[in-house]
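WARN no homologs supplied; continuing
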Amino acid sequence: MPLCSQRCFFSMEKLTIVNGDIYTPAYFGQGNIVIQDGIISTITKENLPPSEEEIDATGCYVIPGLIDGLIHGGGGLDSMTGKVEDVETIARAHAANGVTSLVVGISSGSMEQINASLTAIAHVADQPVEDGARIIGSYVEGKFGSLEKNGAQNAKYITPPNFEEFHSMWAASDGTLKVISIAPENDKNLQFIKHLNTFKSDAYNDIVIAMGHTNATYQQAMDAFDAGITRVTHAFNGMSGMHHRDLGALEAVFSHPNIHAELIVDEHHVHPFWGKQLIDNKGINGVGLITDCTEHAGIPTEEWQADAVYVSELNAYRLNATPAFDSKKYIRDGAMWLDVGEPTERLAGAIITLMDGVRNVIGWGYSLEDSLTMATLTPAQNLGIDDTLGSIAPDKAADIVIVDKNLNVQNVILLGKVVKS
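OK structure emitted
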């Protein structure tokens, strides 16, 4: 029988996956999975009765659908166009690459642009596209950051955290704003963080408070963690620290045991040496793998190169201008950069999907089991969705990916429905 052959190509009430090497993400072994009405009902090593509606996963790994906790686009489209159809395309691009859940990033911009984008993301979160990754919610990353650590965020739109703009964004998101990132040094007496933490369950749908694009001192960061921050926006990037005398936010991330650290795993944003230091320090239950990817994730190299101009003296591809984006965008050495060759040159985003990132982390020496944990269950726990997502277990949503031994995606199953075969 062909590798991962499939006998059924349509939505069904019952689906069986047989003969797969199952990771839950803990290693389960050779076995079978029964899905009923979109929910996992059984995972077993015992033989099952023959079924006409089944996928034979012989020779394949069966893994939980990946959860990317911060993306900015995919499939050739950016997350901030304010167009529902663009968010749907992004969701499809990631689903095709084995990422079944997304938190969609919002960069700094005008409030009009931010709110339009939040509304479009909310529409897809509430009315999922049939063959696309589920949208867990939106992630406002740069709006309340630090000017000193703005990175690729547009500095002219960055403001201190304030309730007027936050409540405007919250309303535009229709309550689907899932992560809000803050530079705590700009939050006077940590009033904003403390308010969100106090009322996050009653008023804000269990919003996750993150620290990012911050120039905070070590003590400011530690105080912010104690005030309610539970997550760190792309550790190392856009963050003070890494000095042997003057400790900053990064050292606080390493020190605090209860902080979830996002780690961009494209091997450009963070060198594997430092990525390994973070994982070894915090453990696989404290680090969530992300891509922080741009619109070029999930599209072939030759496709984006066809719309770009190679600038030989910069050894980079100049991309088409983006409306309402002030900086010039390039792709160089496998990542997106801004203003290459100019004093304002800076790294802007990855161009990989999370399955590529999992391969990278395995290449650093981590097992498939540990790498999957950081791309599934660990982010689900920080986002508060691990009761239904993040692992293969009875009574959880049937978001499952079947891959070959090189992690090439063969089948994607989202809520029990085959969306890629």
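The two ends are 15 Å apart (CA to CA).
OK
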